[in-house]
Design brief:
Layout: H1 3-20, H2 52-83, H3 86-119, H4 122-150
Helix pairs in contact: 2-3, 2-4, 3-4
Amino acid sequence: MSRRARLIWLSLLVGPVALAQPGSPGAQGPAPGNLPPAAVDISVPQHSTLSGQDMLRQGAAYRANMDRVVAELQAMVEQARKQKDIIRLNCVIDKLAQVKVSMNIGDEAMQKLQQAAARNDEGSSLHEYTRMTIVNQKVQVLQNEGQTCVGAELNYVGATRVEVEAPDLPEGVTDPSLEPPPLERPPAASTYR
């Protein structure tokens, strides 16, 4: 390749890079890395749409719902005991125990919510109300799981009816209980025993 061709190739390869450098005659504006950082607000304001008293009323409604779920699960436990269904009994007792633990957490959150509402502490009130909401949702999930412990027999309505079709029998055979014809043993694949 001639010297002139090498210079043309070199100018084609290096020319755009040289023009893109800051301060060069062909550069347009400051380089992206040299821009000052933009001011960004990363704070997340939390403002409740409910007042403290509304949160307390809703928390009391959640607590009443939890009491209703406990009564329902206890009735399921008694029903399983009467039917002596140990598998269902263990399942429902497990769900009932988890609901009671969740209720203890909910009671603690409700007490702290009452204290925060009395102090007009919006942040703490919102936090405790959120805890109560989560506990209520957990109790609803446990209620549904407890109902599925019982639900196996609810899927079937009425007595089960089974119909059996007789297999196709060879012509002349009317009794399927006859012995099948003797089978011949296949020849040995190998003489090695």
